[in-house]
Amino acid sequence: MNSDHKKYNDLGLGVKASAGRYRILNKDGSFNVQMTNLPFKERVNFFHYLVSVSWPRFFGLLLLSYFVINILFALFYFLVGVEYLTGIEGSHEFEHFLGAFFFSAQTLTTLGYGRVAPIGLITNSIAATESMIGLLLFALATGMLYGRFSKPTAKIKYSSNAVIAPYQNINGFMFRLLNPHKNQLLEVEANISLSWLKDNSEMRDFFQLDLERNSVIFLTSAWTVVHPITQESPMYGVTDDILRKKDAEFIITIKAFDESSAQLVYSRTSYKANEVRWGEKFAYIIDHSAVGLSIDASRLGESYQADLNL
Amino acid sequence: MNSDHKKYNDLGLGVKASAGRYRILNKDGSFNVQMTNLPFKERVNFFHYLVSVSWPRFFGLLLLSYFVINILFALFYFLVGVEYLTGIEGSHEFEHFLGAFFFSAQTLTTLGYGRVAPIGLITNSIAATESMIGLLLFALATGMLYGRFSKPTAKIKYSSNAVIAPYQNINGFMFRLLNPHKNQLLEVEANISLSWLKDNSEMRDFFQLDLERNSVIFLTSAWTVVHPITQESPMYGVTDDILRKKDAEFIITIKAFDESSAQLVYSRTSYKANEVRWGEKFAYIIDHSAVGLSIDASRLGESYQADLNL
Amino acid sequence: MNSDHKKYNDLGLGVKASAGRYRILNKDGSFNVQMTNLPFKERVNFFHYLVSVSWPRFFGLLLLSYFVINILFALFYFLVGVEYLTGIEGSHEFEHFLGAFFFSAQTLTTLGYGRVAPIGLITNSIAATESMIGLLLFALATGMLYGRFSKPTAKIKYSSNAVIAPYQNINGFMFRLLNPHKNQLLEVEANISLSWLKDNSEMRDFFQLDLERNSVIFLTSAWTVVHPITQESPMYGVTDDILRKKDAEFIITIKAFDESSAQLVYSRTSYKANEVRWGEKFAYIIDHSAVGLSIDASRLGESYQADLNL
Amino acid sequence: MNSDHKKYNDLGLGVKASAGRYRILNKDGSFNVQMTNLPFKERVNFFHYLVSVSWPRFFGLLLLSYFVINILFALFYFLVGVEYLTGIEGSHEFEHFLGAFFFSAQTLTTLGYGRVAPIGLITNSIAATESMIGLLLFALATGMLYGRFSKPTAKIKYSSNAVIAPYQNINGFMFRLLNPHKNQLLEVEANISLSWLKDNSEMRDFFQLDLERNSVIFLTSAWTVVHPITQESPMYGVTDDILRKKDAEFIITIKAFDESSAQLVYSRTSYKANEVRWGEKFAYIIDHSAVGLSIDASRLGESYQADLNL
Questions:
Q1: What is the pTM of this model?
Q2: Is residue B207 pLDDT above 60, yes or no?
Q3: Predicted local confidence at residue C100, as pLDDT
Q4: How many domains does chain D have?
Q5: What proportion of chain D, given as a percentage, has pLDDT over 70?
Q6: B309 Cβ contact list (under 8 Å, min separation 6)
Q7: Which of B150, B179, B195 is the last residue of a domain?
Q8: Quick check: helix, strand or coil at residue A263?
Q9: Could you tell me if B146 and B195 lie in one domain?
Q10: Chain C residues inside the 8 Å CB shell of B294
Q11: For position B102, what pLDDT does the model report?
């Protein structure tokens, strides 16, 4: 590979930065890179956090906020005096507080049964403020729920392993992918970068691997991405042992246009040396009848033995 | 056609995958490809489903959820005891349940008339939870309604048939399209792929057809897309009979920028051999006066006989 | 101009379609093209209509719907019987109907004062349905309001006239534009198409005019777009009289990236022959001090006499 | 630099416009350009203002509107007569007005306790209108909150100073940047424009500086953008003194694809002559262990002395 390719392909990690033995990219496409010593307000993006946090945590935070805000307002009503809330039940202080708490919940959600209702300037003012805050908070929750749901993510499914298989009269590095969802992915582009340690060094080299085909118009079926191991390939003459010794990592980037969200989406994964099967070929998983094609997605990673060309 | 074109143009279906006689692309642009054996959670995208499901089904699901959730909460209130709901009507158990059901509806929608209102810790807690859930559910519905409505789809109208018509001193494969909506489509690009069976084989060949013009800046009028059948065209020397015998399919892809949604949109359709009229020409459907042009959209597919060049 | 340019530049209107004397593009960027005989459901996009209709009409429609829906539900409650609404005022039938109408409004908006409240199965069911419909309708209104407000439109301001001014040692066709809003427009591209009648014909020719500069990185100031009238220009040797006789129209297209909405935006306008001032130059409207530049937007179209080069 | 570059790189400010000594671009990426004499309705974009105004001001405006609208409606109710509001407290006029005010708040937020409720045609009509307006206003607030939160902004962090450091066997102009947030920035492109005063003139020249590398696929780490000062560079032979005398400004533009919002984002900054440190090199701030890389963001701008090549 020429140096131009290398330059483009150190992925912006920098030559020094890429030294050492570790996994650059996790299977799920996240990077093993951390930022430290960032000021809190530069690091944290509240909305982005709430949009990307897991569902249980998201709902947990919602419930907690709901509870805490009601406790807070209940305290306000309680301190002003429950005599300014008509219809409050019980005689015990705690019962009064509970009454104020549920009145607060009815106000925050703009439910407003009215069995308990505010009288007097202060209690009325707090209630008017609370109902407005309630609407804004639920406006926020609406936005975040929409943000969570509408977020386009090309949930591309990759074969669990890559293979080195015979390809025409040479061999090729191959992996396979498909789009499990109903939304069409269009103008799908693939990119393979190979990273490994230089000989007798802890520094890493980066190569962009040439592909048999860089893009497909539609990703309706399973696509086998192939890097033909020609004499120009850095993989030429390399064996399984060498790949493992050099701590090789094949970094995969997929870029596509997601028709349903009308947005560009990216997907990433990587194959380490031990995730490459030598002398295997992907199984044929497409069935075709008079009405069309049918692809067995569960067999995406299935491969069988096949003699390599020398 | 050279092999480069072919490679790009098997549409990502793969050479083997494209064997056999069937329609690759339906008239509405959907593919005759199915994924099988996908785990449920990889296959299903709840939001995407609710955004793309038909309107009657969408509203049916909304109503059903509303009903089921209210039944559920009514059950909770009922089991805790209707004595914790003030103002509940009737003496019969079923009347009590109905009362709890309607109270639940008033709580879920944050209506809260208050004629029936909760008392006691447990009933109040359920009501506070229900009103919050209600707000979140309607937040979700808001997002989905917006998602449904704002989804850009280039609803391009295609001529029902393609024609082989005289073009300059040769002939051409032609179809016609227009944008029935008021939103402008800009930088509109057309692409025609021809797929047919190889001679004496059940394998398919793919060709990208060269166009007289690949794009227009605006799609304000009807656009006749033309593939001139030159000596370089795979259609050169082909007859209606050959086209049918080879189970030919012309796969049309349109890409445009939709000005009103500020997004890229794609549209697809296909013409099978039996949807191509030989020796016909599209009728002239544009009227122009002093104030501008007027296009008769109902005559988009209209054609009349025209002698082909030899 | 070579024929390639012409082909690209009949704007997708078609050669025949572009015959005759009329304005192709209005000053506000809309086209003088109409579609007729379209089936209703293909032509109408409800959401798109409500998002692009004028504000008074939008609010008029909202109010009207609100009124009509309440009348409808009031009728339901009235027909079931006002005895199923507690606290209804008056003894006259019309007073009862009014009571039902306001109860409906309180239910549709989920206000639910509860002074008037439903009893009995049927009235309760109607109310439960109405409150749900209310939430969905306001969810819809939320989406449409957001759609209306977030719609990016490059509200570019153009000089009211174009000029033919001296340019270096030749002359040039020039117009000027600026972005009145605070949002930055980036990577701004300009395109001028000239359309005029062929000699002794009612058919139109289209030319793409070469520009001194096709794009600017930022549109922070006023940009004078210049077509130098070189010997290669179709404008070479043309006079004001010829331009008017040929019913010339300069069609302007601007494409930019709107930073605040992160979307591509397009803007269009046109100058007819009578909107071109010959032998005038745009006035200098930029003021610069130690703190930066200041542009007098009200003088965008201002020009003064300047002798043309021969 | 050739004149093509210059033309492209006067940033659309115009040659004349760029005369004088001032900062073109502020550190935060905003321009020192103002539009004057714009008609109010052309200049103001209400939604854009509310989406980009600071949070305290945003909430201040919300609260103020809430207060003013309630005062207004309270006035209506008060003028019609508090006898048309059941359950209003107090005997004093001001108490009545307060009661009307809180009733208005309960109506605008669709809280509707019902302790105070409207009777009679006029008061009921006002309340029905107010609750509808309330829903629309909060719909608007929802949209604006979503607009504020979902706005993608590449909050790129730049080194506070640029440096002139040894680069291979020559020197280079360098600055450093990183993305402090968790969202991935992909296909990141950098651009440096140099603006300075012509010799013995108050007119400015603009140059686009060639970069060692124009783009990186990912911005996971800190990226040092380098302009090598070759013999072709306008910086060749320039000293710190010359830079200051020519009032030089390095204008930085970064363009990237923000994966989390699926949108293109731009970031800008500039370095004036006094923000360039001569003969310094950026410190190495990357730590790598077995699990990945760790970058000390607080040291982004840290540099140490380094002898320049001659």
A1: 0.83
A2: yes
A3: 95
A4: 2
A5: 91
A6: B166, B167, B169, B170, B171
A7: B150
A8: strand
A9: no
A10: 33-36
A11: 96
Based on the domain organization, do C179 and C54 belong to the same domain? no
Question: What's the rounded Cα separation, in Å, for the pair A10 and C31?
Answer: 50
Considering the domain boundaries, does residue A12 fall inside one? Answer: no
Nearest by CB to A140, which of D145, D213, D223?
D145
Confidence of residue A14 (pLDDT cuts 50, 70, 90): low
Interface test with D, best of A7, A9, A10, A13 (most D CBs within 10 A): A13
Do D298 and D256 reside in the same domain of the chain?
yes
Instruction: Tell how strand C162-167 and strand C276-278 pair up.
Output: parallel
| CB-facing half-sphere around the CA of B244: CA atoms within 13 A | 8
Residue that is last in its domain, among B127, B150, B173: B150
CB-side neighbour CA atoms (13 Å) of A232: 9
- 3-state SS assignment for residue D19: coil
Q: Which of B221, B218, B201 has the alpha carbon at shortest distance from B282?
A: B221
pLDDT of residue C254: 93
Q: Are residues B29 and B173 in the same domain?
A: yes
Residue pLDDT, tens place only, B37-63: 888 777 677 777 888 888 899 999 999
Helix (H, G, I), strand (E, B) or coil at D45: coil
Q: Which of D66, D181, D297 sits opposite A45 (nearest CB)?
A: D181
Residues of C in contact with D148 (CB under 8 A): none
Distance separating alpha carbons of residues A98 and A89, to the nearest angstrom = 9
3-state secondary structure of A286: strand
**Sign of the torsion angle spanned by Cα atoms B48, B51, B52, B56:** positive
The gap from C-alpha C126 to its chain's centroid, in whole angstroms, comes to 42
CATH of the domain at A220: 2.60.40.1400
Q: Testing the interface with A: which of D221, D223, D263 to mutate, by most A Cβ within 10 A?
A: D221
Please give the residue range of the domain that contains residue A142. 53-150
Determine the distance in angstroms separating the CA of D185 from the nearest CA of chain B, rounded to an integer: 21
Please report residues of B whose CB lies closer than 8 A to that of D113: 114
B60 shares a domain with B131: yes
**Helices then strands (H, E): number in chain C?**
7, 17
Nearest-CB residue to D114 (from B110, B114, B142): B114
Look at residue A254 and tell me if it is in a domain: yes
Task: Say whether C113 and D113 touch across the interface (CB within 8 A).
Answer: yes
Token code pair at residue D59 = 């909430």
Which CATH number belongs to the domain containing residue C114 in this structure? 1.10.287.70
Residue of A nearest to B24 (CA): A292
Whether residue D217 contacts residue A12, with contact meaning beta carbons closer than 8 Å, is answered with yes
Question: Which of the residues D83, D104, D132 would you substitute to probe the C interface, choosing the one with the greatest number of C C-beta atoms within 10 Å?
Answer: D132
Q: C146 and C132 in one domain?
A: yes
- A114 and A91 share one domain: yes
Give the lowest-confidence range in A160-169, A244-253, D211-220: D211-220
Q: Inter-chain contact A20–D284, Cβ cutoff 8 Å?
A: no
Tokens for A70, please give them.
């009601």
Answer yes or no: is B16 within a domain. yes
Would the pLDDT of D19 be above 70? no
Contact between D246 and D196 (Cβ < 8 Å): yes
When CB atoms are compared, the residue of C8, C32, C36 closest to B292 is: C32
Secondary structure element (H or E) that encloses residue A144, with its range: helix A121-150
Q: D61 and D160 share a domain? A: no
Strand bridging mode A170-178 / A162-167: antiparallel
Residue B310 lies in a domain: no
Q: Which amino acid is at C202?
A: E
Query: If you count residue pairs, one on C and one on D, with CB atoms under 8 Å apart, how many are there?
Result: 189
> How close C257 gets to chain B, by Cα (Å)?
10
Q: CA of A36 to nearest chain B CA: how many angstroms apart?
A: 35
pLDDT given for residue D16 in this prediction: 52
ipTM: 0.79
